[in-house]
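Late entry, evening session. Most of the bench is empty. Finally got around to the prediction I had been postponing all week. Sequence below, unchanged from the version circulated by S.P.
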Amino acid sequence: MRLSDKTCAMEDAVSRIGAGAVVMLGGFGVPGTPFALVRELVRQGPKDLTIIKNDANEKGMGVDHLLAAGMVRKLIVTHIGLNARAMAMMNAGEIEVEFCAQGMLAERVRAGGAGLMGFVTDIGLGTELATGKPRVEVGGREGVLETALRADVALIHAARADTFGNLCYAAAARNFSPLMAMAADRVIVEAEETVAPGGIVPEAVHTPGPFVDDVVPLGALGEEYGIVRRA
């Protein structure tokens, strides 16, 4: 069977993201953040986005460019403490921010990718994180219903991809990306290196190709964003 070639131009891939979209961004601070795709998203400029990411990056990079361009309606994050712009916009009521404990964010995304509507946990009971959320009793114990998260599009950074979309992440850059690739209707990947099918040994595949829709080879463009190709 001949596998399809999913490589495409960055402009074409990002053009599928419309106003009001829910967008997941892989990354834990710098590692794994799809900086090139984010900058192209800023260039194209769709408004009223909901961004789901571990953090808001630091000022002057990643999510901060989306905030500066006035493209974000809501952030769903674990923290924004490294980004003064995000904090100021939240305090001024210019954006809505929903905070999740880090493990809870990961589990909400995983649940979305697994086709679940949500899950029940006792984490957060008695804190602001549980305010307004449905309470459920299971086996005599009270829990909070945490809803699953899904997105219209996930933007992912991979160290290596084959043309069919099998992905390999580098070390800690793996973080949220495999979960988000399962929880979005469309998955767009920027790849430091792109190889033919078979160029990634099966045991090194972290995200299988069927989850991926578009592969954007970074090539020399990666250097523009400080991405160093690994040997």
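Two things to note before I forget:
The chain has a mean pLDDT of 94.
The first helix runs from residue 10 to 14.
Will write this up properly tomorrow.
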